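Quick question about two entries, pasted in order.
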Amino acid sequence: MKDTELCRSLEIEISVLELWVEHRWLVPEEQEGTRTFHDADLARARLIQDLVGPMGVNEDGVDIAMQLLDQIHGLRSKLGILMNAIRSQDEDIQRRILALLDKDPSA
């Protein structure tokens, strides 16, 4: 979706969207000078709205929240890759790895 569609969906002014993009809270796809937002951007924008609106989080807080969200997504991706790597191993190695994961680290 384009800028105007996103703004209309969120009921925000274009200046608010520009601020969010400037802060890199939203990073649209750009081709030939045209920005395109996807469903994930819309979901992220709704989270930003909740943070700055009802939750009263300031800009620094939103920066931190968005950075943490990005880190979580990155970790989920890496864990998926790790799980695929484990699945590609012999069953004995898989069992040994999973047994290590089940151990209590505080023991």
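Here is the second entry:
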Amino acid sequence: MPPQGHPPAWVLDESDAATEGKDAPTPAPEAEKRKLQIVWRNVTLFVFLHIGALYGGYLFFTRAMWITKIFTVFLYICSGLGITAGAHRLWAHKSYKARLPLRILLTMFNTLAFQDSVLDWARDHRMHHKYSETDADPHNATRGFFFSHVGWLLVRKHPQIKAKGHTIDMSDLLADPVLRFQKKYYLTLMPLFCFILPSYIPTLWGESLWNAYFVCAIFRYCYVLNVTWLVNSAAHKWGDKPYDKNINPVETKPVSLVVFGEGFHNYHHTFPWDYKTAELGGYTLNLSKLFIDTMSKIGWAYDLKSVSPDIVEKRVKRTGDGSHHVWGWDDAPAEQKVAATIVNPEKTE
């Protein structure tokens, strides 16, 4: 997600500041580069978090009040938008601009999601795009599904991530006082937004504090983490590549359904500046686009960037795998027919 899917603030790692501004080290032998150093503190915390989330899921379906369930879904949507419409599309890619009220709202949503501050999340996501599928990519998908989903949070960062971290320009985001405020007070704001308020508010309508904590806080938080991580894992593994067959990201509709339009990943990595993160014009699988468009109508979002159909079609015909609807099967180039057949074995002439 999630991003996407920046590690929560409690995930232990070495300080990025140690290598800030330094030249990249001499590449180590492959065995040394890929040596995993497990952070057992993180493993333990994630195990207990997921056990608590499973219990919270049980309470959600069996004991929680209906209004508590609705509130949990509402928090899930707000959390998701804090990542997708906020940290990702607004701040990491600057695909649209937001006025102060929207920036404050999305920062609150992002704090609710607890995937670290916007400044840290956007930095890692810019690393992911600049060095995609290399050792400088925080969740390098070429290292397997588990690693790109959650394993990257259970081990020390690869040295190349720290060596190249200084190449990411964050001056545009550091200039935003809202983001600086969130970063400065994150360890106070995060517990309040992510755990304390979601646990307290349901008690106002008679829900038990026990149910509220495990359902609205733990279960909701862990669920948002995992669906966000699917963008790093599943959306880099299973699906078509209609826009660029030479990269790992794919089009994955199920991921887009649960992560508000973020699963159209082959499009996104081909055109990362498009606020839609997809070619789709509708909202069926793109709740984030609906939210941004709504904010645009009330004047809180503006300068929405998109890609013209002409440019998309040209790119599809130049680098796509032949699965895009712009191609009639009989008219597609031979090499793209082969690529499409590999992606979709059942497809024949």
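Reply: The radius of gyration is 21 Å. Residues 7-32 have pLDDT under 50 and may be disordered. Hope that helps.
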